[in-house]
Amino acid sequence: MADSQVFANATGVGMKPLEGQTYIPDKSYFPRSLIVVDIAYSPRETAMLKMAKVAGCRTMNGLGRMLFQGAAAFELWTGQPMPVDYM
Q: Tens of pLDDT along 31-46?
């Protein structure tokens, strides 16, 4: 990961029933310049994101992805845009 710019977890590791778990052994795997994304949305800060934050990385959880995926589905089903600004 030393030469990477972004690291993304798109697995269920970190969410129930695997909450609190991560497959990254320790924060030394995260260079400070890395952007770390976890597609998990619950908990909002997974063990991996906490570790990355301690390492000084920028982090992003999956809450926005869940919202906008839902908005796209809402529009497909109803033909109306979902009012995401109110959510």
A: 999 999 999 989 999 9
